[in-house]
Amino acid sequence: MLYKENELKINNSLTGEKEVFTSILDGFVGLYVCGPTVYSDVHLGNCRTFISFDVIYRYLMHLGYKVRYVRNITDAGHLENDAEEGEDKIAKKARLEQLEPMEIVQRYTLDFHKVLQQFNNLPPSIEPTATGHIIEQIEMILDIIDNGFAYEANGSVYFDVEKYNESNNYGELSKRRIEDLVAGTRSLDGQEEKKSPLDFALWKNAKPEHIMKWPSPWGLGFPGWHLECSAMSTKYLGEKFDIHGGGMDLKFPHHECEIAQGTAATGEKPVNYWMHANMLTLNGKKMSKSTGNTLLPEELFSGNNEVLGRAYHPIVVRFFMMQAHYASVLDFSAEALNSSEKGFLRLMEAIQVLKEIKTSEKSSIDVEALIQKFYTAMNDDFNTPVLVAHLFDAAKYIQAVNSGKATISATDKERLTKELNAFVFDILGLAELSEEQEGNNESLETVMELVLQMRQQARENKDWTTADAIRDKLNEAKIVIKDDKEGATWKIQ
Ligand code: AMP
Ligand code: ZN
Predict the structure, then answer these.
(1) What is the pTM of this model?
(2) Would you say residue 20 has pLDDT above 70?
């Protein structure tokens, strides 16, 4: 067990303070992160949040905690514009594409998993879906009604915010005052069944045209988006758990409502530490599906985007993200990515050099102190940019030893190798690129040119069997061919 009491500090969004982390059960951590709503391809901004929490998950495990990491899939109940009224995002996409909602869910869940795997994210311990937990959600609503904090109206159930606020503080997470919220909300606009415009739906009565609906004590309907996370986190992590995370944009209303629901159901605040990852921006604006200001991971990996001009390896993109603290805004640009790539290759080279480096009787620097700095950085609210700066110091030292300007003892070499590998690969989740991934494999280029020529010849001869067989075999080898006006191109998946 590496963790020591009082060492790890987390910036708790609930209190606004950097606090010493103490888990509820010694040695165990319950971590819940809001997952994606699977109605479209994940963009790079979404990925940033999930990569930030992947590093947090990895570091907690490195410290020796047994972490139960729950990240849900929202496959129902999330309405357009994150609003209280309107069409379900998934149902809308299904309608537009003439597909079953569950076909949409399956397609984008697979895409989500594939992309996160490309970024070398670890899968969570449990990945529950909202539609798989309708019963738990209904039970939670019944508890909230029993405790007097929700009411039924025309087959829907609403959370009574003003009632809750008499004995609690709605707005404590997002630092909003209920008076300001009331003043800032326009009339009920077709939501007359609510007692107050601040009230939010725990369960919505389904209109006849709504296809995703389930039976409940209040008739056919569907759960509210905020409720899903409360029900699933309670089920797998308990009524009170250690860390809840998500993107900054989910603080209000989503997380504020989660706190209210949990407290209303059990009488206790559900989460000890709230963590919020900051946004990835493009041209200074939040990367967002709704404004079209997005970059898709695939566009980055293939270079098929005008912002970039060329392809970047997912691990390089991951490293770029590590160079900003998770709670700071990060602006995307090709220049920043280029310099990250150079830095990444420098780090990888140093790790290679260290393997072969000659040792001396003594080290010319205090290696143990350098390693301690790695820990100090991560213990300070998972400060990856400071960690990366120390990793670069280590790389510089390794190169100095290699060129005879510094020395390292055998014990220090062993120690540095172990810790460098742990921080670079296990904690930051980076990986060495193979030669072809670095784009240096000339022989592969030559072979592929020949194979594509043979395929082209087969196509001209209308020998579709051979042409298809070539494509399929390449696919099996994870090489995809793309045909366009200029001819065929290929890339490694
Ligand atoms: P959604 O599928 O819209 O619920 O979003 C999934 C996750 O991505 C949430 O935690 C959001 O906060 C996060 N997210 C959305 N846009 C961005 C962005 N531009 N940068 C970082 N995280 C984002
Ligand atoms: Zn959530």
Answers:
(1) 0.88
(2) yes
Cα–Cα distance, 233 to 150 (Å, whole number): 20
Distances (CA, A) of 284 to 170, 307, 337, 452: 31, 14, 15, 41
Q: How far apart are CA 109 and CA 115, in angstroms?
A: 10
Q: Which domain holds residue 445?
A: 439-492
Hey, what are 426's tokens?
């296990």
Q: What is the pLDDT of residue 180?
A: 82
Q: At what angle do helices 89-97 and 101-118 cross, to 10 degrees?
A: 110
Residue 360: φ, ψ to 5°: -125, 180
Cβ atoms of 57 and 427 closer than 8 Å: no
At 369, list the tokens: 């102190």
40 lines ligand 1 (CB under 6 A): no
CA dihedral 305, 309, 315, 321 (to 10 degrees): -80
Find all residues with CB under 8 Å of 463, minimum gap 6, and list them: none
Q: Are residues 445 and 414 in the same domain?
A: no
Give the residue-averaged pLDDT of 396-403: 98
Considering every ligand atom, which ligand is closest to the CA of 254? 2
Note whether 209 and 289 are same-domain residues.
no
Q: Where are the alpha helices (DSSP H) in 16-78?
A: 44-62
The tens digit of pLDDT for each residue in 122-158 reads 999 999 999 999 999 999 999 999 999 999 999 999 9
Check whether 47 is labelled as a binding-site residue: no
Domain shared by 61 and 204, yes or no = yes
| CATH code: domain of residue 230 | 3.40.50.620
Say which residues have a Cβ less than 8 Å from residue 90's Cβ, sequence separation at least 6.
37, 38, 39, 75, 76, 78, 101, 104, 105, 212
Ligand 1 center to residue 339 CA distance, Å? 25
Transcribe 107-144 into DSSP letters. Answer: HHHHHHHHHHHHTTPPPPSB--BSGGGHHHHHHHHHHH
Do the domain assignments include residue 129?
yes
Atom of ligand 1 nearest to the CA of 38: 2
Per cent of the chain over pLDDT 70 is 96
Say how many Å lie between the CA of residue 229 and the centre of ligand 2: 5
Which pLDDT score is estimated for 441? 46
